[in-house]
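Re: Re: ligand-bound prediction request (bumping)

Still looking for help on this. To restate: I need the protein modeled with magnesium ion bound, output as structure tokens. Inputs repeated here so nobody has to scroll up.
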Amino acid sequence: MKKHLFLIVILLYSTQLFSQQIHRKTLKLMGSRFDISVVANDTLKASYYINLAVEEISRIEKLISSWDPNSQTSEIIRNAGIQPVKVDKELFDLIERSIAISKLTDGAFDISYASMDKIWKFDGSMKTMPSEKEIKESVAKVGYNNIILDKENQTVFLKLKGMKIGFGAIGKGYAADKAKTLLISEGVVAGIINASGDMNTWGKQPNGDDWKVAITNPLNKNNAFALLPISNSAVVTSGDYEKYVNFNGKRYSHIIDPRTGYPASDIISVSVFAPKAELADALATSIFVMGTEIGLNRINQLKNIECIIIDSKGGIHTSNNININKI
Ligand code: ADP
Ligand code: MG
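Reply:
Sorry for the wait, this slipped through. Here it is.
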């Protein structure tokens, strides 16, 4: 009797194991395409989990969006140069971590980039380069040193009138991390939250293999040149090959150095591997600004963080501990 029961349990357990499948949903959140994949036994459960992730990401969007006039972020911006604004601990902490990344990257990453005047256009309409004066003035209100945090009162104050903050280079990564954490706490064994190339993964594929990420060269999009396993960690790819403008033979990309007002120039794509998508997201943007040499140097100093850079000539550069398998 006992033996039978034991056998049935094993049988049930193994059918459960083998019926695990990847369930996936694509939708638009935070103005971007999100692909949410979970490994689950049945469709009903999977869609319950996916909805939880969607709710979590929408909740974060309401907090950090600078387009939504009702967000706390908009409230901070409206009060720039006027008064500190009390915010949720979650937003306060995100801003605190953003400032820490600014320090880590010598200001290449800066959420106050958002007040930059839009003097560069990357839609083909720009015929002459802006003047040096215009470029300098465009970043007059940019500077993370003027974001004043008061931990005790949990307030944020933008010191200068007209200052703005924006989470365009960190928010999607943060949302991917939070959705992952939530689904793990709900017991989801494996999955991928992919926010337009900012992704965090956990667990393994139903066949027992690690998740794999394909790295493509933007100059030859149909051809992935590396397929890398990622295990319970994040990978973020940043870069838009189409958005750039050429002046005097130099290529200027849509990511602008917040310290100088000049667009980043020698990189077309960066992938960063890190334990968290938030940091990977912010670092990918920073590497664009820092350039290949300084970017690689900085990444090589950080533990558990790797990167692959593709420069504007198609050259591939990798940090010290990365191993590209040609496929
Ligand atoms: P994408 O999400 O388009 O792949 P990124 O993650 O690199 O690209 O983020 C680019 C966005 O980040 C820009 O659209 C802008 O909102 C914001 N941003 C641009 N430059 C900086 C910067 N130096 N520091 C912080 N945020 C930036
Ligand atoms: Mg980024």
